[in-house]
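Researcher: Let's continue the batch. This sequence belongs to RNA-binding protein associated with RNAse of E/G family, and it's 228 residues. Same format as the previous ones, please.
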Amino acid sequence: MTDGDGVTRYWEPGTTIEWVYQGTGKHADKPNVRPMTVVRDDADGLVAWLAPGTPLLRPVLTDGREMRHAGPVAMFTADRALKLDVWHGTGILKVSPPGKPWSVWYFWGADGTFRGWYVNLEREHVRDWASRRTSTVDHVLDLWINPDRSIEWKDEDELEGAVTAGRFTAAEAEQIVADAHAAIRDIEAWTTPFSDDWQTWSAPAAWRLPVAPTTHQPDLIAEELHSG
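Model: Same format as before. Here are the structure tokens for RNA-binding protein associated with RNAse of E/G family:
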């Protein structure tokens, strides 16, 4: 990956980085910040691990509920708060292929069984070497690939809601759908990273959880007030 001086650089395995989904518009100060550990970083892309229990920052509604509770339109217009939380699910291995407007996430069940691949449509990543941060913007639409390689479309209603809310123009939404079809062509051809067998990978036992992000301060939200 080339830095501002034109020098090719990569993060060493084991490096803690922040995988950031930037806020946009009036929500520009409400990013989703996930500390992750680099598994591999080279010309084939960045591979990073989000471990169970990792402290993170994420946007929620001002009463503490998930954004989706506002509905497919208001979730893009409603006021947000930034919540300090932890990753409650099983770990996710994320792969950001170079030059692609998506990342590929590997999911496992609680018993370690591989569940499938998730293609998260997003802007091509931009790195901040000094802050050890890779930043993107979520494009709402997603794909789920089952272990038998069958494909399911996800969150199409939310992409429509994003257009209604003014988050994307109709032309931008069309491009996002086109990007999804391009990803499907990669899936059907079973190119990297799908063919890389990351589903057999497991995190080294010696890896420690990253510390909580400090780039932004969480808000005091309603559920925190009630819990006090």
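Researcher: Any comment?
Model: The mean pLDDT is 93.
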